[in-house]
Specification:
alpha+beta; three-stranded antiparallel sheet; single chain; 122 residues
């Protein structure tokens, strides 16, 4: 399924079907912080939405719901990050929130787990 997720100024993440793209003004609003075009089967864009939205202050409960919906686990975050060894600054910021607020672990523990995951890949 294709569509768009956007981060509203109220910090909620909202999905709209691809049909809204027919209206070029739809996302031109002072209430929209960021928009992501998405194929819900694309795990890479899923992680980008999770990390970038958290960095921008998204409602953590909304992000938790997306993690459950897309089966985004700590294990899959290690895999995603192992392919992005030099992450964007906003991903790093989002990762801090993801580790602490969603995984309920410290960032140091997250990095230790990721290093162990990468070591087991080799």
């Amino acid at each position: 399924m294709y569509g768009y997720y956007y981060l509203h100024k109220n910090k909620h993440i909202i999905f709209k079907p691809a049909i809204v793209a027919n209206d070029p003004t739809y996302f031109r609003s002072p209430f929209i912080i960021k928009v992501w075009k998405v194929d819900v089967l694309d795990r890479i864009i899923g992680w980008k939405i999770i990390l970038e939205s958290l960095a921008l202050g998204a409602n953590v409960e909304d992000v938790k719901e997306l993690c459950i919906k897309w089966e985004m686990t700590p294990q899959s975050s290690y895999e995603f990050m192992s392919h992005h060894r030099n992450p964007k600054e906003e991903w790093k910021e989002g990762l801090c929130v993801y580790a602490e607020k969603i995984c309920k672990i410290s960032l140091n523990e997250f990095w230790d787990n990721m290093k162990a995951f990468i070591a087991n890949m080799n």
